[in-house]
Specification:
This protein has 1 helix and 4 strands. The protein is α+β, with helices and mostly antiparallel strands. It holds the Pfam family YIEGIA_cap.
């Protein structure tokens, strides 16, 4: 079973839920934050192509 560990987004208003949410200011920061978290959390970053990336631990 997979678990969403974190969300990185440009649009705070469109995101809610139980995972930690990181709001960033631009596309470059979105990519940097998501890929840094990917390494730290030993997870996979998935780009939803709407200014949001999710970090998922696949089990």
């Amino acid at each position: 079973m997979s678990q969403i560990l974190a969300i990185v987004t440009l649009t705070k208003e469109r995101i809610a839920g139980g995972a930690p949410i990181f709001v960033v200011d631009g596309e470059d920061e979105l990519q940097r934050m998501a890929f840094s978290l990917e390494k730290m959390l030993d997870a996979n970053a998935h780009d939803l192509k709407n200014g949001t990336m999710i970090l998922v631990k696949h089990g």
